[in-house]
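User: My instructor asked us to take a sequence, write out its structure as tokens, and then describe one feature of it. I'm not sure where to start. Here is the sequence I was given:
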Amino acid sequence: MNPSTSKPLGHVPNVGTEHVRDHAADITGHSLDLPIVCRHSDAGMTIESRRQRLIELAESLPEVTVEPGGDDNDHLGLSVRDRRFGWYLEDHHDDGVIALTCKAPPGVNTELADADPDRFFIPSYTGPRGWIGVRLDLNEVDWDHIDHLLEDAYRLTAPKSLVTQMEDNRPLP
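Assistant: Let's start with the prediction itself. The structure tokens for your sequence are:
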């Protein structure tokens, strides 16, 4: 059970990425460019394998550094040229949650959290500045969606030359 919501870990509501993408685009006026639902069971993934998957996605972006943080170095800071754009949080303040928090375009954080509150949340410190949190400890994690969230956060933080480099090196959908 998740102590903060009294729901079993892995509970996923019947709200797909396509709905979240369309709803947020209607409100914010821009497309989130998220993939259509592409979920698969991650129930067998360990905490370490989820952490490693996130590191691989982050390090695929130009000049990203991933550095340990937190009291036990169990969190990871994601930065580009010393500018933070995301955090991997493991049991932050004993909440029992494993999550990615990252920058998001204006209004997207509240739209995602409202549309799918079991998967997305507004982080306590950075949420008021537009950051979004997404749980990585559920039985189903849409890693394509995580990749898109990281790319959006990177675009909001990195110099334009690095964003262009990233876009030039990404395969076309």
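For the description part of your assignment, you could build on this observation: Residues 17-161 form a domain with the Aspartate Aminotransferase, domain 1 fold (CATH 3.90.1150.30). Try explaining in your own words what that tells you about the chain.
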